[in-house]
Write a structure and sequence with these properties.
Rossmann fold; 6 helices; Ubiquitin-like (UB roll); rod-shaped; alpha/beta; 3 domains; three-stranded mixed beta sheet; nine-stranded mixed beta sheet
Length: 267
């Protein structure tokens, strides 16, 4: 026959009036002292405080995301010369968005998708301030090809002209034969133009076709044919050496053809 073990209540020693120590169950003591009620009330109060803090935090977040004070309706745009404020602000895509939803990196990518923008930097501050710093591409060439004109910078990136820019170097390429693999102006052709410009800054008109490649006429009337973009840097140096030697010798030259640098032709 199994014995039932009685759960013995934990005892605590108390000092009665007669000085004798006597045991009293803790549960009975706790009930008399109201500890259980105090603990329960304390827990309930803690839950209430936590709930109150949560509701307050949600209210603050709602205010931040819904208040018009945090929405963007303008930006501080710097560094632009070609593009207007309106064009850049529209391209940024930030108008009417909360400052908390604006991703500076995404805005930079949107702006740098414009062919006129080399680099963009975006910063934002509370409550709704956005600063955009633009580094624009600098058009150096006016490339006339297939009946239209395009700007091109020294990297060969082409852009639709959006205003009149005097002083650009002109490149006449009727059949668009100076196009590089990426659809922009062949960088080797640009290398040749830059090299000649360093030697002869007054030359501002170049031509390109499949037969003669890059060619131009010097201020003193000498026709120069550089050919395609292959070994362009060396061809420019070779042209300069021939020109200098002819000047030293006092030789009259009308044509310098370095399309085939291993056998240059002079007339």
């Amino acid at each position: 026959m199994s014995r039932r073990r009685r759960r013995r209540a934990s005892m605590v020693l108390v000092h009665p009036v007669d000085g004798k120590l006597r045991g009293r169950p803790i549960n009975t003591l706790a009930r008399r002292l109201g500890l259980r009620r105090l603990i329960t009330q304390s827990r309930q109060a803690g839950r209430f405080v936590s709930l109150t803090l949560l509701v307050g935090l949600l209210a603050i977040l709602a205010e931040c995301f819904m208040s018009y004070s945090f929405f963007v309706y303008e930006a501080d745009i710097r560094g632009n010369h070609l593009l207007s404020y309106e064009v850049l602000y529209e391209a940024s895509g930030i108008d009417g968005y909360s400052i908390f939803w604006i991703d500076p990196k995404a805005v930079e990518a949107s702006l740098e998708a414009l062919p006129y923008v080399r680099e963009a930097r975006v910063r934002s501050w509370l409550p709704n301030r956005v600063e955009i710093t633009i580094q624009e591409r600098e058009p150096m060439l006016l490339w006339r090809t297939k009946g239209k004109a395009l700007w091109a910078d020294w990297d060969g990136v082409t852009m639709e002209p959006i205003r009149d820019l005097p002083g650009l170097i002109r490149l006449e390429d009727e059949l668009a034969e100076a196009v590089g693999p990426d659809g922009h102006l062949d960088p080797n052709i640009i290398l040749g133009i830059r090299g000649i410009r360093q030697l002869l800054p007054e030359v501002d008109l170049f031509y390109y076709n499949r037969l003669n490649g890059l060619h131009f006429t010097t201020p003193d009337g000498v026709e120069v044919r550089l050919g395609d973009g292959q070994d362009m840097a060396y061809k420019v140096q070779l042209f300069d050496a021939i020109r200098r030697q002819a000047r030293i010798e006092g030789r009259s030259v009308h044509l310098i053809d370095v399309r085939y640098p291993e056998s240059p032709f002079i007339r």
